[in-house]
Each structure stands twice: as structure tokens, then as C-alpha cells.
Design a protein that fits this description.
Belongs to the Glu/Leu/Phe/Val dehydrogenases family. The chain is α/β, with parallel strands linked by helices. The protein has helices spanning about 45-65, 85-105, 120-125, 140-155, 170-180, 190-195, 205-210, 250-260, 265-270, 270-280, 285-310, 315-330; strands at about 10-15, 20-30, 35-40, 75-80, 110, 160-165, 185-190, 200-205, 215-220, 240, 260-265. The protein has a six-stranded parallel beta sheet with strand order 8-7-6-9-10-11, with helices on both faces. Strands 1-2-4-3-5 form a five-stranded mixed beta sheet, sandwiched between helices. Residues about 335-340 have low confidence and may be disordered. The chain binds nicotinamide-adenine-dinucleotide.
């Protein structure tokens, strides 16, 4: 999901001097403030695919921040790890990456992502969020944000059925909350251990999950799951989840609408983690107030869905209009300079 009307500001790719591992930082936009985005560590089939990933994910972060009304821009970083990485070489790769991020002088601030965690953020500190002394895991607020987006489409969840693709950190929170709300929850994961952890929930094999007969389909694993090929197989009338870049391309939003599927844009539904982290670590607000800001995703999603119903456009088109309007007339930071966030001011 990458539709913004401008090119990346910066892409830096470097081979680490200690580790020999290639790492990259992409800064898509600093229009609203320093670029933020997770640091992803994983093996890639090629350098090109790592660069493609960091470019796509960083532009999605621009949209996520703009729509979430925070005074930050979009960035992302990747560490293209070899298939086997000893703990020592992994540590050296993180230090190499920390050097690269530090050279950017605060223009890019990292956070945990696939393959990295809070202790890695300690190494990137002060150019990172969610270090061990920070706001903690973003998975719970991310799940809360998905639930807020879901409520905008289906206020009454009791008695509905949901299939969650990806029983990881966010997927597990979602499964527990939805079950508590009276939803019949089915989960799926490619990891064989996922099935053991999923006792208490109905299980479905990953290759059947996307086309499962249910009220709500929740992509909570990888991106790119909604494609021209997979849309015809969908049976759920509503798709909403935390996975970034769920569409293979923006045109898939039109296919979803034509198939009668309501798709809530990922960059709206998955913003709970950054909203909570910034509220806690930048604005210093209490946990409860930070969660209130996450819950504003319900109002934002309701506004987008109502606009789409009114205009006949897709929710994606309306969400892009919202984000791009904000990028076109940037928030003027108050006395706090960059770092002051506005989340919740337009959607209390
Ligand atoms: N954690 C956050 O705060 C956060 C914030 C925003 C977006 N996201 C996105 O949400 C998604 C889930 O995040 P997470 O933190 O729970 O990640 P995670 O790594 O904890 O969980 C993902 C799970 O998906 C499983 N999986 C991978 N491919 C699969 C497939 N094809 N079918 C079924 N299962 C598959 C993995 O085995 C894993 O258990 C990711 O796309 C992530 O980028 C997460």
C-alpha cells in the first residue's frame, strides 16, 4: 500500500564494516516530522527484494503517520540477514545498523519489527522507540487499534465469526479479545507451534484460511495477501487486520469493493502501536490516555467508511485522501517542536 504522491527522500544501503551484513534505511517523508518505522531483520532472497521491501514499508509509514495525525513521517529500515546468523554476527550487524541510523542525526527513528525487539532498540537508542526502558511492546495497542477499526464497521460483534491469519503477538491478543466479545474465533499459522498455542480456538490450515466462510477475515501475518487472484476466493464480507501492505497493488481495493467486500485500509487499522508508543514516549501521557488515542481509530475508520458510502469511492481512496490532505497542509508543531503529536485532536 504505497500511494503517496511523491518519491522517497532518501535511501541508504550499506554493507556493515563489522558484520559484512547489508543494511538499509529508507526515508520516505519528513514532511510532518522525523521519519519513523520499524527495523526489520530477516533473510531476503536478493538485495533487490530487501530494497523493495524497505521502500514499500516506508511509504506505508508515511500514510500511517499522516492518517493517525502524528507529527512524524515515514521511514523503515532492514537488515538483510544471511540464512544463518550467529549471535555474535547478529550483534555486530545491529551495531553496524546503529552506526548508519546515528549518522542520519535523528531524521530516522527506528522501532522493533519482524526479527527485532526491545533489546535491539537499546543498541539503536537514542534513535529508536520501544527500547527496554520505553513504552513496551506495541502488539497490544496494535490489536486494540484493529478492534477499534472493526467496531466502526461492525459495532455489535457478539455471535459473529472471525478467522485470524497469523497467530503471532498481535493475532493472539486479537483472538483473546474477540472471543471475550462473543465472537467465534478460528486461527491459523504456518508455524507448527502455533497450533499447540491455539488450544481453545478453532484451527484452520493456512492454505484454507483466506477463503474461509466467516464474517470477518483478519490478516495478521504477512503483507501481499490480497491480490487479483485471491480476491475472488474470499468469502468474508469484511477484511480488517494489522498486517502491513495487505494489497498486492492499489487496484485490488476496487476488486474488493466490486466483490462486495469491505476492506479497512491497513494503514488506518494497524496504527495503534505507533499511536500508543508516541503518546507514551514523546508526549509522556499516561497509559490510559495513550489507549484512548488508539481508540480514536474507531472514529477515523467510521469517517472513512461513511465518506466511501457517500462518494461511492473505496475506503482506500477515502483513506488516501485523508492522509494526503494532511501531507499537503502539514501540522504546525507547537512549543514542543517536532515530537508534539496531535493524535486524537480531530477524532477524539
Ligand atoms: N506488532 C505490532 O505492533 C505491529 C504494528 C503494526 C503492524 N504490524 C503487522 O502485523 C502483522 C503481525 O504482527 P506481529 O507482531 O503479530 O508479528 P508476529 O511475527 O508475532 O506474528 C506473525 C505470525 O504470522 C505467522 N505467519 C507468517 N506467515 C504466515 C502465513 N502465510 N499464514 C499464516 N500465518 C503466517 C507467523 O508464523 C507468526 O506466528 C505483521 O504484518 C506486522 O508487520 C504489527
Amino acid at each position: 500500500m504505497t500511494s503517496t504522491s511523491f518519491a522517497h527522500e532518501q535511501l541508504i544501503v550499506r554493507r556493515g564494516r563489522r558484520s559484512g551484513v547489508t543494511t538499509a534505511v529508507a526515508i520516505h517523508s519528513t514532511t510532518l516530522g522525523p521519519a519513523i518505522g520499524g527495523c526489520r531483520l530477516k533473510p531476503y532472497p536478493s538485495l533487490d527484494s530487501a530494497i523493495e521491501d524497505v521502500l514499500r514499508l516506508s511509504s506505508a509509514m508515511t500514510l500511517k503517520c499522516a492518517a493517525a495525525e502524528v507529527a512524524f513521517g515515514g521511514g523503515k529500515s532492514v537488515i538483510a540477514a544471511p540464512e544463518t546468523l550467529t549471535p555474535q554476527r547478529r550483534y555486530e550487524a545491529m551495531l553496524d545498523h546503529a552506526d548508519l541510523v546515528a549518522e542520519l542525526g535523528g531524521t530516522y527513528l527506528a522501532g522493533p519489527d519482524i526479527g527485532t525487539g526491545t533489546q535491539d532498540m537499546d543498541l539503536l537508542s537514542p534513535n529508536a522507540f520501544c527500547a527496554t526502558t520505553g513504552a513496551g511492546s506495541s502488539s497490544f495497542p496494535t490489536a486494540l487499534g484493529v478492534l477499534a477499526a472493526l467496531r466502526a464497521a461492525r459495532p455489535d460483534l457478539a455471535g459473529l465469526s472471525a478467522v485470524i491469519i497469523g497467530f503471532g503477538s498481535v493475532g493472539t491478543y486479537l483472538a483473546e479479545h474477540l472471543a471475550a466479545a462473543g465472537v467465534q474465533v478460528t486461527v491459523s499459522d504456518v508455524d507448527p507451534h502455533g497450533r499447540e498455542r491455539a488450544s481453545g480456538f478453532t484451527w484452520i490450515d493456512p492454505d484454507r484460511a483466506l477463503s474461509a466462510d466467516c464474517d470477518i477475515l483478519i490478516p495478521a501475518a504477512t503483507g501481499g495477501v490480497l491480490t487479483p487472484d485471491t480476491v475472488p476466493a474470499l468469502r468474508a464480507p469484511l477484511v480488517v487486520g494489522p498486517a502491513n501492505n495487505q494489497l498486492s497493488d492499489d487496484g485490488v481495493a476496487d476488486r474488493l469493493a466490486a466483490a462486495g467486500v469491505t476492506w479497512i485500509p491497513d494503514f488506518i487499522a494497524s496504527a495503534g502501536g505507533i499511536i500508543h508508543t508516541l503518546a507514551r514516549e514523546v508526549d509522556g501521557v499516561p497509559h490510559e490516555e495513550a489507549l484512548n488515542r488508539v481508540n480514536a481509530i474507531e472514529c477515523r475508520t467510521a469517517t472513512i467508511l461513511a465518506a466511501a458510502r457517500h462518494s461511492g469511492a473505496t475506503p482506500l481512496a477515502e483513506a488516501l485522501a485523508l492522509a494526503n490532505a494532511r501531507l499537503g497542509s502539514p501540522f504546525e508543531p507547537g512549543g514542543g517542536g517536532w515530537g508534539a503529536t496531535t493524535s486524537g485532536t480531530r477524532c477524539p
